[in-house]
Specification:
- The chain is α/β, with parallel strands linked by helices.
- It contains 12 helices and 10 strands.
- The longest helix is centred in the N-terminal third of the chain and has 20 residues.
- The N terminus is likely disordered.
């Protein structure tokens, strides 16, 4: 009897320690369409997270992927703890970092490609040519890297006191695939799309579609557009799971 009762506190302590040290058994990752997220698509297709987990002694570990059309949706998913590792545009990550007082942190840069504002409207040659009825598709109004890059370009064109809000009413939130379809439909109200690869290249193959603005003009050069990020809490509770994601993408980027 004394031995049996003596085991109970020890067993309770072991169970508590095991629970505290337990990591997630499934890594949930969001993704977005486009070449910017090609490294993530390859990781999903080749099951690199699962392979790395098996190599480190965790066979059967699962990575779940969900395609989301905007960075705001990525942040919503992370905030609800529905997903643990969203890759998205760099500015979306910075906005969440500000909102969470620094709790959202970058894991690794995924990719960087220039992106272009294109239109089928022959009357629009520069960003100053947009009228009140000219609709521009962006992944997220105000918050996407495309929307903020447009704001930077407008500040340069008009001055800080006029550029911040100009063309915000023109913006329509659309995922890139839907925006491509809208732009190429002559009847659709959306006549411009601040796109990314490969959507901008597909659009520019069509007669009459031309470039109004390229990101390099506004930003002053290249930069890492897509980042993978998560929360401090997730990293502290799941350091091994974190590395199962990080190591494969490091190898893909090398």
């Amino acid at each position: 009897m004394p031995l049996r009762y003596g085991l109970i506190p020890g067993l309770a302590l072991w169970l508590a320690t095991a629970a505290a040290n337990a990591e997630v058994s499934e890594l949930k990752i969001t993704n977005e369409p486009g070449l910017l997220f090609a490294p993530m698509l390859l990781m999903e297709h080749d099951k690199l997270v699962e392979k790395h987990a098996a190599q480190t002694g965790v066979p059967g570990f699962k990575a779940s992927w969900l395609t989301i059309m905007s960075g705001r949706a990525n942040n919503d998913a992370l905030s609800r703890a529905a997903f643990t590792l969203p890759p998205a545009a760099s500015l979306i990550c910075l906005l969440l970092r500000s909102k969470t007082n620094g709790d959202a942190k970058v894991i690794i840069a995924v990719s960087g490609l220039p992106f272009k504002l294109v239109t089928r409207n022959s009357n629009i040659k520069t960003i100053k040519d947009y009228g009140p009825n000219d609709r521009i598709a962006v992944p997220t109004v105000r918050q996407s890297i495309q929307a903020i890059t447009l704001c930077i370009a407008l500040q340069k064109a008009y001055g800080d006191d006029k550029g911040n809000e100009k063309l915000v009413p023109n913006q329509v939130q659309m995922g890139h695939p839907d925006a491509l379809t809208a732009l190429l439909n002559p009847q659709h109200e959306v006549t411009s799309h601040f796109a990314s690869s490969p959507f901008q290249e597909i659009e520019l193959k069509n007669p009459g579609v031309h470039v109004v603005l390229e990101s390099r003009e506004a930003l002053g050069g290249d930069g890492h557009v897509a980042l993978a990020y998560s929360t401090t809490k997730f990293y502290e509770e799941n350091p091994k799971t974190y590395m199962r994601f990080l190591q494969p993408i490091r190898r893909r980027s090398a």
